[in-house]
Amino acid sequence: MTKPETKTASKGQAKAPAKPESKAAPKPVSKPVSRPDVAAKVYEEPKGPARLKEHYKEKVVPAMMKTFSYRNEMQVPHLEAIVLNVGMGKATQNGKLLDSAVEELGIISGQRPVVTKARKAIANFKLRKGLAIGTKVTLRGRRMYEFLDRLLTMALPRIRDFKGISPKAFDGRGNYTLGLKEQLIFPEIKYDSVQSIHGMDITIVTSANTNEEGKALLKEMGVPFRV
Length: 227
What we know:
Number of helices: 5
Number of strands: 5
Radius of gyration: 29 Å
Largest sheet: 5 strands, antiparallel
Helix content: 25-40%
Shape: globular
């Protein structure tokens, strides 16, 4: 039995290129989180009673009924919502700044924010309709009381030379808007992870019918108005 002849390539004959080995497609890499210790718990639903809500039931309601002579507890104004809004005009040139603002607002509020977009185009500001220019979040229920508690007891006292907030920022219907110059007053935000210092507007929506009632409600809740 004869062995099959093996063909050997001559010196002038080029070898056929070897077929490349098929490689498995690389797995998508998830975007790293700047603060994984906080991001893991930022959107969890808080548990247990809210301290400020208990304070409202036990102290604020009786005091408001005595001051305004309400006949029923249901007539006493209450908090309905707190809206946090961040405008990022620089996001038109650098989208990463908006991503950072969304992440920071989520850490501050404990709720996932939404991205706000321009309603109309403005050529002078290089703004196109539908362009993402900010982020906001609306807090209700327990998250609202928890945020207001942290704002009054931890964030506002960290403002340099803080002497209270203006009592003139009501809208005529008992709602109050507070403007902050930087997000670093919140202890949840670390300076090393901040890409851009920006401010925010905080609107406290109440069920009060007048500014007088709204101011009395917030004052009883612990809001430090400037004298």
